[in-house]
Specification:
There is one protein chain. With 313 residues, this protein is of the alpha/beta class. The strands form 2 sheets. Strands 8-7-2-1-9-10 form a 6-stranded mixed β-sheet, sandwiched between helices. A 4-stranded antiparallel β-sheet has the order 4-5-3-6. The protein is globular, with a radius of gyration of 19 Å. It is 52% helix and 16% strand. The N and C termini lie close together (9 Å). Helix 8 packs across helix 9.
Length: 313
């Protein structure tokens, strides 16, 4: 059975994540121990015990999610690694995908995403922004809504094309508020402000992008062992140079998750799409984008055992 790996992004973190894995599998425990050592902090304790408000901070949530997903992959790799044909990750999860593909070493990927989170938080402090989820079908394109709001109130752009009828916008607070109102006028069922520390995946993240460029320039990267599909254009990446370029662009570009999953579903129609990490956010999005694709969640001991049984059958 062919497998496509999916790695979640910020928002999927929760206290208790990875605790059962670390207790059950030495490979998982080793990943969390290395994360603690690489970052010089008790990241594993934060994952296992919280508190939630500290875990949710951008610079903590990003390495925590990568550590958990990497721990799942460390357990599953020997059992299913040869069946993996491609991978993708949502925002932060794209870094985890490159780690799984052998392009980024664990310690390096943890340090990069920790600094990425710090840079994003600093950018949000320097130029406060907002994000909002727009739910439902609109009578006009979301791009047109954002262009009008930008002219009338402040910069706002589409940030996440998560699934049909589910788009996130990002930008200046006034621009986002105006776009929310315009979206409702255009038929949106709901427009909800998100609890985030900045306007991620928008031009307001330019200073964070500059900082990430410098970090990735000195971080060793290898060509991925299997294609990683990129957020910025939905296409496969097979070289380290292309990976660096797309990871940098990602901070100020929209996450084109719908296009990404459509491309993966087209290229690997019969594969099992496995979300590796806490929660089932990506599986839910895949079912909306490509309903015929087979999916599975893999973030706990029970889910790993279920996956291995499914693959073996």
């Amino acid at each position: 059975m062919d497998i496509v790996l999916l790695f979640p992004g910020q928002g999927s973190q929760k206290p208790g994540m990875g605790k059962d894995l670390a207790e059950a599998f030495p490979e998982a425990r080793a990943v969390f121990d290395r994360a603690d050592a690489a970052l010089g902090l008790a990241l594993s304790r934060l994952c296992f015990d919280g508190p939630a408000d500290e875990l949710t901070l951008t610079h903590n949530a990003q390495p925590a999610l990568l550590a958990h997903s990497a721990a799942v992959w460390a357990v599953a790799r020997e059992r299913i690694g040869r069946q993996v044909r491609a991978a993708a990750g949502h925002s932060l999860g794209e870094f985890t995908a490159y780690h799984a593909a052998g392009a980024l070493a664990l310690d390096d990927s943890l340090r990069v995403v920790r600094r990425r989170g710090e840079l994003m938080y600093e950018a949000g402090t320097r130029r406060p922004g907002a994000m909002a989820a727009i739910l439902g079908d609109l009578r006009v394109p979301i791009e047109a809504v954002c262009e009008t709001a930008t002219r009338e109130a402040g910069s706002v752009v589409p940030a996440n094309y998560n699934a049909p009828g589910q788009i996130v916008i990002s930008g200046d607070v006034n621009g986002v508020e105006r776009a929310m109102a315009l979206a409702k006028e255009a038929g949106a069922k709901r427009a909800l402000r998100l609890n985030v520390s900045g306007a991620f995946h928008s031009p307001l993240m330019q200073t964070a992008q500059d900082g990430l460029t410098e970090i990735l320039a000195v971080t060793p990267m290898r060509d991925p062992q299997f294609p990683v599909y990129a957020n910025v254009d939905g296409g496969p990446v097979t070289t380290a140079s292309s990976a660096r370029e797309r990871l940098v662009r990602q901070l100020t570009s929209p996450v084109r998750w719908t296009e990404e999953i459509q491309a993966l579903a087209r290229d690997f129609a019969d594969a099992l799409f496995v979300e590796m990490g806490p929660g089932t956010v990506l599986v839910g999005l895949v079912k909306k984008i490509a309903p015929t694709v087979k999916t599975a969640s893999c973030g706990t001991v029970a889910e790993i055992e279920q996956l291995l049984g499914l693959v073996a059958s």
